[in-house]
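(Deposited chain)
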Amino acid sequence: MEGLNIKLVRIDSRLLHATVQFNWNQFINADQVWVVDPHYVTDPFIANVMQLCLPKTMKVNFYSVEQFIEKVNENPSIKVMVIFPNLEIVKQAVDQGFKVKEIQMPYPAVRVMLKSLSEYFSDEDIERIRFIQEHDIKLFFQTTPYDNKDYSIFKK
């Protein structure tokens, strides 16, 4: 068995949208998109709308943090892109044992002026960032595959 191959982990409050699909799908070649957001687990309308953003060969699944951790531990033989809506839910997943090397975030609209975490993130989110980093997970900004990964603002 080949096992789970996480191609990309992204934090994006917009979840799965056409820009993510068009920009990333051809580069990461995932079989499924897993959206970890407990608010939408029982919402078939949202699942159907987000499925429209994907090619027919790709499937979107919604999980609570607990369901996501169970699915990761099942180690299915697929390539997956994981999307979290915010740092709070990522922290919950990491706290429950989720391990990954790095997590991507889209650049904020003010990226040219961004010089410190406090210019863009709340104190609570900065605490979440530090918690995630303490688990040997790197965070970086990158909006499209054509942008360089920018780890600089997340340095301690």
